[in-house]
Amino acid sequence: MRRAASLALGLALAGAGNATGISAAEIPPTEIPPAARRSGFDTMSPAIQAMQRDETANPGLLWVQEGEDLWAKAPAADRPACAGCHGAADASMRGVAARYPAYDVESGGAIDLQGRINACRRRHQGAPPFPYESGELLGLSAYVAAQSRGLPIVPPDDPHLAPAREAGRALFTRRMGQLGFSCAACHDDHPGRRLGAAPIPQGHPTGYPLYRLEWQGVGSVQRRLRNCMTGMRAEPFAYGAPEFVALERYLMDRASPLPIETPAVRP
Amino acid sequence: MAWAWIGCAILISGVSAGEGDAGRLRPVTVIGGEIPEALTETPGDPVRGRALVIDRTKGLCLLCHAGPFPEERFPGDIGPDLSGVGGRRSAGALRLRLVDGRVLNPDTIMPSYYTLSGTTRVGAAWAGRPVLEAQAIEDVVAFLVTLRDTTTERSAP
Q1: I need a surface site. Which of A55, A167, A180, A215 has the fewest CB within 10 A?
Q2: ipTM exceeds 0.90, yes or no
């Protein structure tokens, strides 16, 4: 087969500035100011809102329950359970999800909640990591995050996180995939409009891990981001990729001060 | 003053497979906000064009645009309604908006249907392919120019 230099489609306009004669001014991508930030909860149907609120109807609480069991369970006879070091989660884990992803000294980068749980297993429990999207990892993440339910998201004031924040913001505004969309093109510029039948939310990860009716199960924010990237006809980042952690950091900055909703329910 | 400029970007095809690469894309000429010349010798087919427009996995148009498609429910509302668009825009202007609307507005959310540039991380299944092939672009253009005043369309028997 030949290696070829190919003539590709290229487009250019005449040197004259107004060659098109068409005014195509559009509002440039702008971030949503804190007072205007809205959770996707607000635009859901009342029935799904009620499902999230109702402690007996929210299916995500099954995962939270699994997490609670794991919190108290030692991975091996000579290894501590999470509770062995951290004690009661409702005290020690309160507020944690509202400030994650955080800076991890050992890896020298940002780490998200599920990454922290797996790091803790490796460092302190001598246990293998839970697989991404496993019931165990989702359950423990949901249990820890649920301890912050109702607390406002507070971006940590940690200069070590600056590179992740910057990388996350850059990813958010980068055109990706065959369709050339960016996250910002929909979620900064067109929230409230509809993509087909689906309302476009502002895209705040306030309730993860969350129960999605479409999934018939609980999933992580990374699962949701991968879905979005597939829709953009882009190659999704791998689970646990630093790009995803950076995006999570930026998204949490962008969502502040909305409250944590874990376990949220979404259509 | 230069009014038209034939633009042809040179891309190096790094793969040896020889298919699906940029070489398949035909060069186009933008003149005054239009691509006046059809991309293909075969005239566009408006019937095929309509089918592409309403196909939410091929043309994808209804994800963002409403239009005179009474059988199609729940279109998106990000872009303008396509009703009457053939009365508002020439074939060449519609062709440019399909091929690469970013020439007119670099910030537009409208995908560029017939270019391989300006994006990153294209999924493996889509790499090296435009959203629509040249003949499909012509089919869609041929259909869109038929969309004239909507009241006339709706009163037609």
Answers
A1: A55
A2: no
